[in-house]
Task: structure prediction
Amino acid sequence: MTKKKTRRSMLRRGTTPPNRRTHTIRIPEANGMRNIAVRSSRDASLVGEYWNAVHRYVARGDSTALEDFGNVLITTVNGEKVTLLTDVNTLDRLASAGVLSFESIYGRRI
Result:
């Protein structure tokens, strides 16, 4: 099956192939924020869901959504495996220091 036919059939089913462009995203780490570059739109989307869980925790104190990200690894364009921060004490410290910013999760281009 050609690429065009595959994409067309995926669109008919309501799915799309992941794009492979580079996404630069900010994630919290124990010592502050870090920009990472990911190549998969699925990884970028997963980090977006993670940020929603972090925001929910900081705003409401509800850490249940963070539990889903305890063992999640994100692969950067360099092949490095990055674990998402789920420790509530560290997130509290970063939030009280004003490090967590929810205006933009997208970093500068690396």
